[in-house]
UniProtKB/TrEMBL annotation:
Pfam families according to UniProt: MaoC_dehydratas, MFE-2_hydrat-2_N
Taxonomic classification: Eukaryota, Viridiplantae, Streptophyta, Embryophyta, Tracheophyta
Domain MaoC-like: 192-293
MF term (GO), any: 17-beta-hydroxysteroid dehydrogenase (NAD+) activity
This protein's GO CC annotations: peroxisome
Sections of the chain in a coiled coil: none
Stretches assigned to the Peroxisomal multifunctional enzyme type 2-like N-terminal domain: 22-155
CDD domains: HDE_HSD
Highest rank taxon of the organism: Eukaryota
InterPro entries the record matches: HotDog_dom_sf (IPR029069), MaoC-like_dom (IPR002539), MFE-2_N (IPR054357)
UniProt-recorded name of the protein: MaoC-like domain-containing protein
């Protein structure tokens, strides 16, 4: 728990994070696609081979929109580094993720990231921190996407000096939290199996948190075995939406919002349910074996050439 005598929440409002650079190649794009299950059930899947291979004479592989989440990974891996805020990184949980996309990503590139604090909340036994990352193509200076991630730091709360929990946020982070899943039958349902080695494959995209690979670390965090990365689960669900709603076109995705509700164990089956409301796809993902909802949110899409 944070020491309120050393930690002044107001002091972080002027806290500056260093800019970061993210370099990637086509190999990284392909490895990421495999990490989120592309072609995992069918190696010649007509909707997904384009993420892995130069299909039909195309010059470059296409990039999944959730690849954008990797651009902000350096900020999380380096720690949040707020003066006086102490937390055990093994107890860090990913709470929410929002991605806003401005144009398709090149199959390789150099990304310049500008990172800022977007919110800090004292929840008593935990702290919630919100980080915003604006990612620019380094050569052109063009804004490619914005990531906003929410981290749940167990054991880091209790720093408020007032009787009311401290809360600061520069943007509205509760849109996905208050999202209601429709009671009607889903417009589309897609079932996909994660592999027992899924987390070990996904971690090669840069998230080496031992929670996803080390059995002892997983037990300290309260899990029976290593769990799947939340962003990997998100990749599975957005792939399902691209396949079922976007007719296999990843460039139709305009923004992605996700709330991570429960862990997934590698090897479990994910069922993504989708409801289409105008140009918004509301979705939730369930683990088939435990019948538990693990992820929910929405994906905004560009207008299709013809109605579904």
């Amino acid at each position: 728990m944070a020491d309120s005598s050393e930690f002044d929440p107001q002091s972080i409002l002027s806290h500056k994070y260093p800019d970061t650079t993210y370099n990637y190649t086509e190999r990284d794009v392909v490895l990421y696609a495999l990490g989120v299950g592309a072609c995992g059930q069918d190696a010649v899947d007509g909707d997904e081979l384009k993420y892995i291979y130069h299909e039909n004479g195309q010059q470059f592989v296409q990039v999944l929109p959730t690849f954008a989440a990797l651009f902000s990974l350096a900020s999380a891996l380096n720690g949040f580094n707020l003066p006086g805020l102490q937390y055990d990184p093994r107890l860090l949980l990913h709470g929410q993720q929002y991605i806003e996309l401005y144009r398709p990503f090149p199959s390789s590139g150099c990304i310049h990231n500008k990172v800022s604090l977007a919110g800090l909340h004292d929840k008593g036994k935990a702290a919630i921190i919100e980080i915003e990352t604006k990612s620019y193509e380094k050569d052109s200076g063009e804004l490619l996407c914005i990531n906003r991630m929410t981290g749940f730091l167990r054991g880091a709360g209790g720093f408020s000096k007032s009787s009311q929990p401290y809360s600061y946020s520069s943007y509205s982070s509760n849109k996905v939290s208050s999202l209601k899943i429709p009671k009607s039958q889903p417009f589309a349902v897609f079932e996909d199996c994660t592999q027992p080695s899924q987390a070990l494959l996904y971690r090669l995209s840069g998230d080496y948190n031992p929670l996803h690979s080390d059995p002892m670390v997983a037990k300290v965090a309260g899990f029976s075995r290593p769990i799947l990365h939340g962003l990997c689960t998100l990749g599975f669900s957005v792939r399902a939406i691209i396949k079922c709603i976007c007719r296999g076109d990843p460039n139709l995705v305009r923004s992605i919002s996700a709330r991570f509700l429960l862990h997934v164990y590698p090897g479990e089956t994910l069922i993504t349910e989708m409801w289409l409301e105008g140009l918004r796809v509301i979705y939730q993902a369930k683990v088939k074996e435990r019948n538990r909802t693990v992820l929910s949110g929405y994906v905004d899409i560009h207008r299709l050439s013809s109605s579904l």
